Amino acid sequence: MEAEVSEDVCTKWSETLRVYHTTSCELENELQDGHDLGLSEFEVLKILSSKCCDSTGKAKMKDLEAEMYLSQSALSRTVTRLEKAGLVTRATCDFDRRAMFLMLTPAGQERYEAAQPTYRGVLLRHFA
Amino acid sequence: MEAEVSEDVCTKWSETLRVYHTTSCELENELQDGHDLGLSEFEVLKILSSKCCDSTGKAKMKDLEAEMYLSQSALSRTVTRLEKAGLVTRATCDFDRRAMFLMLTPAGQERYEAAQPTYRGVLLRHFA
DNA sequence: GAAACTTACATGCACGTGCATTGGATGTCA
DNA sequence: TGACATCCAATGCACGTGCATGTAAGTTTC
Q1: pLDDT tens across B43-85, in order?
Q2: Which residues surround strand D, with CB < 7 Å?
Q3: Is the CB of residue B123 less than 8 Å from the CB of residue B20?
Q4: Can you say whether the dihedral through the CA atoms of A119, A124, B2, B5 is positive or negative?
Q5: Hey, which of A9, A17, A55, A98 has its CA 20 to 30 A from B71?
Q6: Which of these, A33, A79, A35, lies nearest to A58 by C-alpha position?
Q7: Which residues of A touch B28 (CB under 8 A)?
Q8: A9 CB within 8 Å of a chain B CB
Q9: Cα(B117)–Cα(A48) distance, rounded to whole angstroms?
Q10: Which residue has the higher pLDDT, A34 or A55?
């Protein structure tokens, strides 16, 4: 029966692997081709966009890091790419000058809204 | 209700992302630290080991590629690493000299068997 | 049988990632 | 206040990956 459990977890893992790879590849390709965005870049815009509903419209790097499956360095570079593309702006925090706030630019908001149907479309194909 | 479906697929995708990242990171780290194997390297050994039950004990690169979520080039380099480590051997096919057969070496079999409990352990923690 | 096409694998290259380190800011304790 | 630890973000570096291409072998078409 232990063998059966092993079989079972192996199957579950294989299935997770399959779903993850097919979906992330498709997201990556369609977001890149259609909107010039990598998947992790889109995910950052997505989180920032959701934060914009609160009063500040800002998010700290640390908060983003906690919500994403990305290392601190990878996140830092992703944000650098988005900043170079004019989609987000960095702003230092007045009270803790180590911390950085992030904000969507209008262009960033626009790009995100344009890309969202593509994103949802892929997910619907795989999970609906 | 469309919004609800969107919510739903987003949640499923987030969950897949979470499980994939935590599990693959853990597998990667534990296999690397304990057995000097990357995850994709382990997966190759795993498939080869299962093939060894048939008469030939060999597998073609193309067959491996079909069973793994890895590009052709990535697989080629993974096999190169395994070959350098002495865990697999490449052999050209007599009937089609483009094709390559792969075989586990005894060291490869041994390494795989040593690593398998680690692999299973991680999966059990995440899927049991 | 020669030319054009296809297939199998390797390799050059660019890119995104994680780890380790750095630089600067904040907190703590004596 | 001064010394030291901690924290945040950026950066150097090594590495694995995918894409595009190269090379060699097989296949098809005439």
Answers
A1: 999 999 987 544 456 788 999 999 999 999 999 999 999 999 9
A2: A 29, 60-62, 65, 72-73, 76-77, 79-80, 90, 96, 98-100; B 38, 40, 69-74, 77-78, 81, 95-98
A3: no
A4: negative
A5: A9
A6: A79
A7: none
A8: yes
A9: 41
A10: A34
